[in-house]
Write a structure and sequence with these properties.
The complex is a heterotrimer. Chain B is α/β, with parallel strands linked by helices. Chain B has ten helices and ten strands. Chain B folds into two domains: about 1-80 and about 155-245, P-loop containing nucleotide triphosphate hydrolases (Rossmann fold, 3-Layer(aba) Sandwich); about 90-155, no CATH class. Chain B is globular. Chain C is built from 24 helices and six strands. In chain C, a hairpin with a 2-residue loop joins strand 1 and strand 2 (about 135-140). The chains are: A alpha/beta, B alpha/beta, C mainly alpha. At the A-C interface, helix 2, helix 3 and helix 5 of A face helix 18, helix 19, helix 20 and helix 21 of C.
Amino acid sequence: MTPLLQVLGVMRRFGGVVAVKQLDLSFNAGELVSVIGPNGAGKTTLFNLITGHDAPDSGRIVFAGRDIAGMAPDRIAALGLARTFQHGRVFANLSVRDNVLVGAHTRLDVVRRSPPVIGPLIELALALVQPPGVARQQAALDAELRDILGLFGDRLLPRLDHPAFSLSYANRRRLEIARALALHPRLLLLDEPTAGMNETETAEMLGIIRTLKQRGLSILLIEHKLDLVMTLSDRVIVMDDGAKIAEGPPGLVRNDPAVVEAYLGHREVGEVVA
Amino acid sequence: MTEPLLALDAIDTFYGPVQVHFGLTLSVLPGQIVCLLGGNASGKSTTMKIILGLLRPRAGRVLFDGADITGLPTPQVIRRGIGSVPEARRLFGTMTVRENLLMGAYCRSDRAGVAHDLERMLTLFPRVRQRLEQRAGTLSGGEQQMVAMARALMGRPRLICMDEPTMGLSPLYVDRVLELIRTVNAEGVTVFMVEQNASLALQIADYGYVLQTGRIMLSGPAEELMRDPRIRDAYLGGERAKVA
Amino acid sequence: MGSWFDYTVNGLIIGNIYALLAVGLALIFGVSHLINFAQGSIYTVGAYIGWTCVTYLHTPLPVTMLIVLAGCGLLGVAIERIGLRPLAGAARIAPLLATIGISLVLDQVVQLVFTPDPRALPNPLPDWRLHVGSGTIGAMDLLIAGIGIVSGAVLFAFLRFTKLGWAVRATALDRDAAQQMGVDTDAVNRTVFAIAAALGGLSGMLVGMYFNHIDPAMSFQATLKGIVAQVIGGMGNVPGAIFGSLLLGLTESYGVALFGSSYRNLFAFVLLLVILVLRPNGLFASSRQAPPEPLTGTFIAPSKPVVVPRFVIVVAVIAAAALPLVPNISYVLQTLTGAWLYAMLALSLTLVAGTVGQISLGHAGLLAIGAYASALLALDLNVPVGFAVPAAGVITALLGTALIFPAFRLRGHYVSIATLGIGEIVGLVILNWESLTRGPIGVSGIPPLQVGSLALDSPVRSYWTCLAVLVVLALLQVRLLRSHLGRTFRAIRDDDVAARAYGISLNRYKGLAFAVGGFAAGISGAITAHLYSYINYETFTSQISILALTMVILGGLGNIAGAIVGAVALISLPELFRFTAEWRMLVYGVVLLLLIRFRPQGILGTV
């Protein structure tokens, strides 16, 4: 089976600092893989390279058979890659409904089937005229968004027309995931989805991510709450200082001395002296 | 019972709607080296911001030498005798090393004393003397850390706050920095440091606190903490520590 | 025709003057990341203080200079304290807009006190000239050069050798770290504003003496030139500002030598745009560096907009349509017709600045393109007015978008600067492209408004026509915002990084928004041309751009009903109170300041 995502020998340096060093990573459809590591390990840089918000200095990134290294983020999104952001980035002044609908932007016919040059004008004309085809797709999306938001119980549905800035922090993070789901992603990248959440909220999010996994969604996750990581993941990749220092099933990785050293500074810290 | 030089009392901190500290309480006795440890997203760096007045807590108090300094503007906190070595050094890059050091003494008006202290710093940090007229931004990471420490000491602080002093340094400079912290402490300066690297910090500290998602999970004398398996759980998660 | 030496000297002297302005801007930007649009107004105040000293107090030159320095320095501190400090917690574009408001107020106060007439500001220096090769240097040249060098040296010494100077440098490099050294950054702000204002005021006085001419309208150009010099040298870079100023002065001088004096400003603004597009960090930064953190996309104060019930809107439109039935209100109808035309511009701007978050400061340029397009189509190509007007709308949409397109990569305040420059360039091109636009003479004899044989130029008919066009444009914009484009535009405004991550191509949608906005503004300009029957390059000034922005903020950024309400309010209320033109602008400036300070979401709320 060809992997869904492949990172091959990717390197990125900022001035004198090498943020990501010759990284190799392979990801198959249906997996849930977590990327962990101490501060400054290069995890978010890696995400930014995959999603097109940054370009690698060398190496290749292949997604669904296409070379995407250095491709613009909006084109990568159109290929079916959705991401959420550390600390959450929802559209503050848009309603919950509009936030989710923007997630579906790449699926709109007016956008997908847009000819070059006159495409924008046609899109404008269709937006003003609203012919039956456009209206139909809009109605279908409206129905679908209720299903998506239903995943979160009654946290977001009753607030459909509330602006996102009025939502609690945890709800904003949930909204971000709803928006990502509206894209119908082939691969979902979650950047610290439970950052800033308390125990209950984290447990809830755990349940949601698990549900998504059960539905067959491919997920790549950055997380610091290692309990979460160990419970959910098929595989764990540990980064430190820009390089991959361990990879494998959660149980194996947790006790790997190299991992202890990366986090605590020395593999003997916390070792009970006989 | 000695009065703590620095104390945080039931601090609750928020970034907008997100709570970062939950009833954070710790104290630093005069003459000690105290470290605050924790993994990513534990709230360590925010603690420094609270102490220095860069961020205001929503509840709780910060006490320095018995006085309530909660919410004071940063320049006033500094003037009370706290020196700061910020995370990632934050030297004034296009100013020379000399100018950086003298900026550390910005609040002082005793020119003779400042000149004397400058000379002392250069003796204590010989590498810095070599680079005195260079632009601070051109120094290596380790050298910058030296300058940052010296800069903070130029203010003759009673307490020096260091935010992740070993981050990004080569092993040689890590050793140097730790040695300097010991020396400075031996001369009477109390040290409060925030560190991710538990091993290094506990080697020189007298006392340690371990922060996990905004709460102190563990505290105690450094040697005890070093051997306490719960410290792994605080960093790596596990059965014994609470799931965050 | 002078020699090249003369042109070089002239360029360097003008450059010197720009440097006094630009250095102040650089200091302020370096320390607080703020573009001080009021710098030119302070320059004007300095010129007038100088004039007052020379004409009434008869003070010797050194004393005059000291008074100007001190007076303007105090003004700078007052501006910082009263105008800007209260905005410390607000969205980052608020101070930029506040300085625009302050500049309006200052200019108008000067105009009210001293009248708009230009005045002479003689210099007290002896009238000899030094002959060097084939050119000459005058006493004034030497004085300005001398002051420039001395100011530079004093500033250098201040920054290098004094404690406060170090505090300024440290704050500009790293505000937080400076605070952690015990620096009082509020005091640093005040100091920097005082220095910038003092230097700016001095440069105004010197310019007045150099050209023996001052007038209240000097400020806008001065601010722009200062900004151009800043952009060339890198925002916040003091030596860069000096270099940029000298380069600008020389470019202008040689440009004038080669092409004529009306090309002076054209060169300046083209240079601005070239730098913004190719090297937004200025000539001295490497091109791979990220630009300094711009003001984040939205000025908008999050708010729940006031929902105007549909029947209220219907009633209002019917009432407006029925108004001409009331006898003897020709004056009211004319005022409201003007309001409808402004409302079209406001619709355009609220779309671009409100919905998409691109704060355009040069929107009057779109009016000019539309006006000239329609006038020239009707006059030169005999296109019937009924076709010329919509065609002008389309031309404005295409041309306006093409002009702004290279600036789409910019964010935050750089967008505003770029649009300011483009607005000026449009006016200057119109001035200079005589074969097409008849240059400074303007276009006269523009056919009146009519569709086929139906004349629409009577007060009642033009009123109805404009109202009808406005209603149609507004309805189209409502429909647009309700479609997927509405949320797409607003997503770009709220967070363009997240928008891109969800497949939204920024160029495509910004282009579309400017095209739609360009169409509405073009129509407004076109109709205006046919109603006025005469237009020239000064018909649509930058003040109109600022006024439109004030209307849009008053109504609520992005709010369609708000744009119309804002236009009607700001056009008709001053008429109601019978304000003369000078007082009107003053009121606009004060309104803008009060809005930004106390109600940035406007009357009807942002959308």
